[in-house]
């Protein structure tokens, strides 16, 4: 599908049918073919976007490897910020981004079963899903006076969560949930360590807004949900977010670190936005 950056326009352009998942090499071939044909129409391709499917990640790694090899032969510096596709007599530089709604859902899914350790301002913190359950239970104790009326079992209770709906993740990773969790934790109504989970929720609320917003003006005080401009606040947030993301690691119930590609792909996507 082709989609414009500044205007609301999208057009499906290619369909494929396979009995199983598309092989990585076949996906690379298809991607190159589509990019070439779209470029010849006069449209300028600056980025490709996909979810974190294994074939998708594998195809981009192949394209990065091909570009790296070409740059080495040409004695050019290459930092994996883009890949190149040869079209007629030119080489197009294209950035790959991972779908941000998919990233936030995958982050939530991992937090359901693992704790997330991260460092902000030199202080290591730990976010736990059990803190979100505590908050939800405390808020639901008086049904007619809920501070978080949007939250339901489908947002919080692991076996009831609607995992395909983005809003069931973003409404948890929100400024309001973070603020109320922090307040209840400081009052010892829920575990005092929940302030660390509240910090994580606010961090990803800002980060998600910064890469998924399109408003020209600030709405409801959400300064990062606006369109990115040369001197907008997004750039500082992204720069500050990278070391925080690089410090993150998921820890299983056995206290062993679990490798989760989602954390790396958040950083890949931020660097892609910065490159653009």
TrEMBL record:
InterPro entries: TNP-like_GBD (IPR048366), TNP-like_RNaseH_N (IPR048365)
A Pfam family matched in the record: TNP-like_GBD
Span of the signal peptide: none
Domain spans labelled Transposable element P transposase-like GTP-binding insertion: 102-213
Domain Transposable element P transposase-like RNase H: from-to ranges: 1-63
Protein name per Swiss-Prot or TrEMBL: Transposable element P transposase
């Amino acid at each position: 599908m082709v989609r414009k950056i500044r205007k609301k326009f999208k057009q499906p352009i290619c369909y494929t049918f396979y009995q199983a998942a598309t092989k990585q090499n076949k996906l690379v071939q298809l991607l190159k073919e589509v990019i070439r044909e779209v470029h010849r129409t006069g449209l300028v391709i600056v980025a490709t976007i996909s979810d974190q499917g294994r074939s998708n990640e594998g195809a981009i790694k192949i394209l990065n490897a091909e570009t790296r090899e070409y740059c080495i032969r040409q004695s050019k510096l290459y930092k994996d910020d883009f890949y190149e596709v040869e079209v007629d007599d030119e080489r197009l530089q294209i950035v790959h981004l991972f779908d941000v709604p998919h990233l936030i859902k995958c982050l939530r899914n991992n937090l359901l079963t693992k704790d997330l350790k991260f460092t902000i301002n030199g202080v290591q913190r730990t976010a736990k899903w059990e803190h979100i359950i505590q908050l939800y239970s405390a808020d639901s104790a008086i049904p007619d006076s809920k501070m978080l009326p949007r939250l339901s079992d489908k947002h919080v209770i692991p076996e009831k969560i609607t995992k395909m709906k983005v809003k069931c993740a973003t409404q948890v990773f929100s400024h309001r949930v973070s603020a109320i969790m922090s307040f209840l934790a400081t009052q010892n109504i829920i575990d005092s360590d929940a302030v660390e989970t509240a910090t994580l929720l606010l961090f990803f609320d800002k980060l998600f807004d910064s890469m998924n917003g399109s408003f020209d003006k600030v709405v409801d005080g959400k300064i990062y949900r606006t369109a990115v401009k040369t001197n907008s606040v997004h750039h500082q947030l992204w720069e500050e977010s990278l070391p925080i993301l690089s410090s993150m690691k998921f820890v299983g119930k056995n206290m062993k670190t679990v490798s989760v590609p989602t954390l790396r792909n958040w950083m890949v996507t931020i660097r892609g936005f910065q490159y653009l």
